[in-house]
Records
---
Amino acid sequence: MSKKVNCPFNKFTSAMGKFFHKMVPGLKWFFFSFIWLGVLLFVLDIVTKTIVKNNMTVSQEIVLIPNFLSIHYVQNSGMAFGMDLADDTANTIFWIVVSIIGALVLIGITIYAWKKLKGVSKAALMIMIAGTLGNLIDRAFYTNGTRHFVVDWIGFFGPNGFPRFNIADASLTVGTVMLVVYLIVIEFIEDNKKKKGLQTPSNSGEIEVSKKEDGKKDNE
C-alpha cells in the first residue's frame, strides 16, 4: 500500500491552484472593466510627457518620418490641440476648472451607470477619464512662470501641419468617438428591433386570415 508523501512542493502548487481558482472571477472582472486600460494610458501619458519635458527644449523637434511624424515639444496653455484664452490667469483657472468638472462628470457617470454599461462603453469612458486626468495633472503642476501648461509632443505633417497633441488628447478623442459611434449603432439596432416587432404581429394576423379563408373554401 502506497503512502501519500507530504511534499512541500505539492502543498505549494495546491495552495497556488486554490489561490488562482479564487482569483479567476476577480481577474475576469478586472479585465472586462477596462480599468487597466485607463491606468495604462494615464501612466503612459505621464511618462512620455516627463521624458519629453526633461530631455528636450521648448519648440525642439525630432523628425521621425519626414513631412509626416515628429516629436515636437510644445507647451500648450490651452485645451486639446492648442485652444487658448488671452488672459493668463483666467486661462489657467478656466482650463483647470473645466478639467476637474470633466473628470468628475465622467467618473460620476461611470460609477452611476456601471452595472448597465456594456464593454465598449466602459472602455470608452476609461479612455476618456485617463485623458482628462492626464492633462489635469499637467495643468495643475506644470508652469512656465506665467501660465500653467500641458506638454504636447506628437506632431504630424511637418512644422505647420496638424496641431501638436499628446496621449491624453488622443485618448479623449478616441474615447469620445468610440462612445458616440457605439450609441449610434445601439440606437440603430434598437430601432430595427422595434420595427420588426411591429411588423411581426401584422404578418401573423394576415397568415391567420388567409388560413381561415382557405378553410371556408374547403368547406364549400
Note: The helical segments are 8-33, 35-55, 88-112, 119-141, 167-219.
---
Amino acid sequence: MQEKRKKIVFVCGFFPLMSGGAEYQAYLLARRLQAFADVSFIYVRTAPGPQVMQSEGFTLYALPKKTFWRRFGDTFFLYIPQVNRLLKKIQPDIIYQRVASGLTGGIAHYGKTYHSTTIWHIASAHDVMMVPVRAFSRYWVFDLFNRYLRIRAIKEVTYVIAQANYQDQMLRKVFHRAADLIIGNFHPDPEGENRPQRRVRNIVWLANIKPNKHPEIFAMLARHFQNFPDVRFIMIGRDTKQFCMAEQLPNLIGKGELSQEQVNLELQKGYVLVNTSEVEGFPNTFIQAWQRYLPVLSVQVDPDNILQKHKLGVCSGTPQKLISDLQELLDFPEIRDQQGGWAHDYAAQYHSLSNIEKMLPYFGAHL
C-alpha cells in the first residue's frame, strides 16, 4: 500500500519572489521534499499580486503586507490569526519556518495545539539572542510581547535546526535548549565551471544596502585602492547602483540586484569576496564564493572561526586591518590562490546538497 503523501507548509519567503539567502535555502529544501510531500508556502508579499497561486508545483499563499505597523518594530505577530486560519485550512503534518519573529511563537503554539510537527531553522545570530526591550520608547510593549513569543516558540517547537555550533551554544546559554540538528547551509555544486584564470582583480561585495551590512566600509576600501588600475570593486545587491553613484569612485561599480546565475558568474570572475556585515547566521555568499575558488575577507563575521581555522580567508576584525589583509592578497596572489583552493575543497566537503539528506528524517522521510 502506497504511503500517503505528507503535507508540509513553509512559513517564510518564496524564492525567487524574495531573493535572500534564507529564502534560497528554504527553496532548495522544499524542492527536495516534493519527492514525498505536497509543499505549500505562506509568506508576506512585498508587491501586489494574487493571494493564492501555483509555482513549480508549490501552492503559494500570499498575505498582504501590514506596512503601517512596521514602524513599531517586529510586528510579525500580527499575522498569527491569518496564518492560523490558513494552517487550519491546509491541515499540515509539518510546519517549517526560518528566521525568528513573533510569528514563530504563534506557529509553535499552533503545532502543539493541533499536533503538527514544527521545525524552526535558525537563520541568524539575532535569532538566538533575547529580544531587546526599548526601555525609553513608547513601543516597548511590542518588544516585551515579542520576547515572550520568542521564549514560547523555542520552548514549544518540536525541532530546532542550527547552521553552526556557535548558534547551538547561544541557544543553550540564552534559552536553555539544545539544537536537535546542526547542519551547514547547502548549495548546488557549480556545473561546467573550471577554475578561472583571473586577469582583472575584482573585489566582490554581495548584499543588499542596509545599515547593518556597512557598505561604507567597502566604499572606504575602494577609495584606498583607487590608484590600482587593475583592481575593481564590485557591489551586488539591492540599491547598490544608487550607492555607488553617490560615492562617485571610478573603481566602485554597482551591479544592482542579480539572479543567482548572474551572481555566480560575477563570483567566477572575482578575486576575493569581502563581507562587512555586523552579524550573520552562516552567509550563503561565503559558500558561493568558496565553490568558485574565492577566499573571504570579513570584518567581523566568522561562524565557528572557520575562516581562521581552515584558512578559507581572513577575519580582519577592523576596517583598518581589512585594508592590510587585502593588500597582502593583492601583493601575493599565490596566497590568494592557495586559500581559494582550500576554500573550494571545504565547500565541496561540508556544504553540498547532500546536507539536505541529513535533514529529511525530521520531515518524516524514511531513508
Note: The first strand starts at residue 6 and ends at 11.
---
Amino acid sequence: MSTFSLAGVEVPRVGLGTNRLTTAPAHVAFVREAVAAGVRHIDTAHLYTGGDSEAAIGEALGGGRDDVLVATKGGYRRGEGRPEVLRAQVEQSLRSLRTDAIGLFYLHRVDPDTPLEESLGAIREHVDRGEIRHVGLSAVGIDEIERARRVVPIAAVQNELSLGERDDDGVIDHCAAEGIAFVPFFPLRGGGRGAEAVAARHGVPVSAVKLAWLLRRSPNVLPIPGTLSLSHLRENLAALDLELSDDDVAEIG
C-alpha cells in the first residue's frame, strides 16, 4: 500500500523532511512545488533553521491545507521538556505555521530533567484546546511509548531507520500492532554496492531503492527524506512505485 492514514490525513508513504529549509523565496517556492508533485506529509520542527523552516511552510501553504499534513516538534534540548517551555514552543509553532491547529506535534526528545508524563501533560493541554490534533514521540523505545499512551493517544513515532541503522525492529513491530505510524528520520543513510546494483537493474535512483527497502519493512513505515531539490524529491517519490523482490532485498543485504 502506497498511502497511510497519518493523523487523520491520507498521505503517500514518502514524505518530506525540512531541516534545511529557510525563508528564502526559492525555498518557499520549493514547498509549493513539492505539494504540486504529490507530497502530502511535511515534517519540520521548532528548532529547524532557527524557526525559519516552520515560517517557510506557513508562508508556502498560507496557513495549511486539509489534504496536507504538517508535522512539527518541540522540546529537543535538555530542559526543553519543561511544561512552560513546551507551551511557549507550541505557541510559536502555531504562529509560524499560520494555523489554529497543528496536525501532528511530536515531543522531539524525552527530557532527562523532566518526567515524560509532565511534558506530555503540557502537550495534552493544547490537544484539549484543539490547538494540536495528534501527538507523536521521537527517539523512544517501547516502554516510553506505553508510558506516553497513558497520558495522550500517540499517532506516530519518529526514530532513526535506514540501511545503515536497523536497531528498531521491536519498536516498528510494536507500532504496527498498535496502529501507530513509524516515521524514519535519516532514511537514506547507509547502503552499498548491493543497493546500487538493484537500482541499476530497475533503472531507478539508488535513493528510491533505499526508501523502497524501508517501505517493504512494514506498511506503517513512512520515511521523511530531506531535500531542497525538486529533482531529488521526484527521485524519492519514485520509491512509491518500486516493488522490490526477495532477491533484490537479499542483494541489498
Note: The chain is about 40% helix and 15% strand.
